[in-house]
Write a structure and sequence with these properties.
With 67 residues, chain A is mainly α. Helices cover 85% and strands 0% of the residues of chain A. Chain A has one domain. Chain A starts with a helix and ends with a helix. The chains are: A mainly alpha (67), B mainly alpha (233). Chains A and B meet through helix 1 and helix 2 of A and helix 1, helix 3 and helix 7 of B.
């Protein structure tokens, strides 16, 4: 019985761990969405989807090819 | 990918994981009392094996993402790389943590430095830790991404090595119980709970990977907006 109690505590600890992880990830997404929405509203911008680093890399590849 | 889909994956996976643990604890048969030093601790296997399975999925995503970024410069590839590293770290820690609990109860020690599988899996988790912390501490750029992608590509070599470790070097870690041929001795009720666990962890980790990719996309948008503000000032 003692072993089962330890196991139950370990299970509860691990479930709490993944619940906290999931909650943290969602909270981060919500914070970022709110931040983006605030900046876009203040700039009067539509949604920007691009990845600046990928664009920078693609531009330098193009320059090398043409240059 | 919509928020509703991401929440559905995470919710379904979480409920499935809770059900697996409940079934493992209350319904699945116990092992013979003389088969293990600590028969009750064996039930941690319903967490340990599916989380290790989810870790392998995450490391496969990391590999594919690294390859897509490194060879194709794909923005989706970079998001996959980031999501795979984060999911690999979380599931790797789940596996290592549950393994040390079982090791303490069964072997009397949480870790065996001479066991091949323990150490290769530990290295994989450390690689994921390096990628997650490294990305957060370095400024984003082509060179940074190339460096981390290279680690993601070469680190994947450890995955098949870890998988076959208990087939070739049985030291302390138990041998395979699934797809183990004649050596497999898993009772059908145990196999059913394990299957539910593997499916649940798969669904859960897909939800996390999708959410993590969404977050990376949002971070990139913040960066674009930030540079636009900087240019206009």
């Amino acid at each position: 019985m003692e072993g089962m109690s330890y196991l139950t505590v370990a299970y509860l600890g691990m479930i709490s761990g993944i619940a906290i992880w999931t909650w943290t990830v969602f909270a981060r997404a919500k914070t970022l969405e709110a931040r983006i929405s605030a900046i876009e509203t203040s700039l009067g911008k539509e949604e920007i989807e691009a990845d600046s680093i990928a664009l920078q890399s693609a531009n330098s590849d193009n320059n090398e090819a043409t240059g | 990918m919509g928020e509703r889909i991401r929440i559905s994956f995470l919710g379904l996976g979480f409920v499935g994981i809770m059900s697996t643990l409940y079934l493992g604890l209350m319904w699945a048969p116990s092992v013979a009392i003389d088969a293990f030093e600590s028969p009750a601790a064996q039930k941690i296997f319903y967490w340990h094996v599916p989380s290790a399975w989810a870790a392998f999925i995450a490391f496969a995503v990391l590999f594919v993402g690294s390859a897509l970024w490194f060879f194709k410069r794909s923005p989706t590839g970079w998001r996959l790389h980031v999501a795979g590293a984060e999911a690999g770290l979380a599931t790797g820690l789940m596996t290592v943590w549950s393994g040390t609990i079982w090791g303490s109860a069964e072997w009397g020690t949480p870790w065996d430095w001479s066991d091949v599988r323990l150490n290769t899996f530990g290295l994989l988790t450390l690689l994921a830790l390096f990628l997650v912390l490294g990305r957060r501490s370095q400024p984003d750029g082509v060179e940074t991404r190339d460096t981390f992608s290279t680690f993601g590509l070469f680190g994947f070599v450890l995955v098949p090595f870890t998988y076959i470790a208990t087939r070739f070097w049985v030291i302390r870690h138990p041998g395979p119980v699934v797809a183990a041929g004649r050596d497999g001795s898993l009772q059908s009720d145990m196999a059913l709970v394990l299957l539910i666990g593997a499916i649940s962890f798969t669904v859960f980790i897909i939800g996390h990977i999708l959410t993590s990719m969404h977050i990376t996309k949002l971070e990139q948008r913040v960066e674009m907006l930030q540079s636009e503000i900087d240019r206009s000032v």
